[in-house]
Amino acid sequence: MRGRSAIVVGGGIGGLAAGLGLRRVGWDVTVVEQAPVLADVGAGISLAANGIHALDALGVGEAVRAAGRGQYTGGTRTPGGRWLMRMDGAAVERAVGTPIVGIPRAALHRALRAALPPESLVIGTEATGLDLRDPARPRVTTRDGAPLDADLVIAADGVDSRLRATLFPGHPGPAYSGSTVVRALTAHPVDLRTDFELSWGRGAEFGHIAFNDGRAEWHAVVKTAAGVRHSDPLGAVRRRFGDWHDPVPTLLAATRPADVLHHDVHELAVPLPSYTVGRVALLGDAAHAMTPNLGQGACQALEDAVALAAALAAEPTPEAALIRYDAERRPRSQAVARAARQAGRLGHQLTHPLAVAVRDAAVRLTPFALARHGVLRHHAWTPPRLTPAV
After folding, report:
1. How far apart are CA 111 and CA 63, in angstroms?
2. Higher pLDDT, 343 or 64
3. In sequence order, which residues have a C-beta less than 8 Å from that of residue 22 and are 6 or more positions away?
4. What pLDDT score does 36 carry?
5. CA 164-46-195 angle, 5° bins
6. Of 281, 307, 304, nearest to 384 (Cα)?
7. How far apart are CA 2 and CA 316, in angstroms?
8. What's the predicted TM-score (pTM) here?
9. CA distance 74 to 83
């Protein structure tokens, strides 16, 4: 294929993965990240089989498995502690070849960066837009005035993507999902009996992910108006969730106020008509930001990275490769986004007591095998093999 240089805008999970994928198929890649310091902020993440298999294709699966913890025990509970459904992680592993893996986001970022040559990652460079006057050499404009051009540009600059806004100025952009999330990592190891739990209440959800070092990530989701903030977010979570079952109070007690993150959840509720324009491809949240209710946001970004690299290796021109990428990725990722939205409505956005009671009864009466089948339709994905183009 003629044209072998790429600029990836965004040094998050999707951007780093895209850089790794393109390098594996013979492209010269520069990943630009606006942050001047890589602080590795963030809490934790669960990676389903499709994400793990994508990481295998990128050559970092083993490193991520070593840094993560398989999720074999846990499930879904009520605020009082009653089990609605217990997970069978071993059955999930048998079905899709790997357990769901819980890992701190910082550890995942480090594993991806470690596989990328240091000179391929440029920090402190803020992309502001695109110049597409030369169809064969898209150019990224930057805050410091020094443009970057290449044979291909990959926009992996997140839910508030500036490059997406340049490509699709008529699109409404991200919309508030109706929920806000507060999350943190515990400051020290905690005694947990399960690898992963979700608890559903009225208009609220609390969950945790256990890690190898004994610490845990917890998240609290509340249905509320956008922009609501508290001077003491941890105190607000304690007031809202402090009387929920163990280990919720234990997790909150093990958290430092300074470690708490608070974000409103936004999504691309209006799907994009395409993930590509000319020689520019959108990837990850820039293309299909979704609610976190299925744990598929990062996994879909990893799929994007592998699929894009495979298309570039297989097709004769970048334009043909991007047509293939869009045809493969847009239907699947937008379907997952719809399913995530529906899961959120079921899980933590119900507020009427009768609706909550019906939901709890339905979940409790659903056999795990049937529920597993519904979840695994998103996990079951076989990555293409990444081989350099001739």
Report:
1. 6
2. 64
3. 6, 8, 29, 154, 308, 309, 312
4. 85
5. 165
6. 307
7. 8
8. 0.95
9. 9
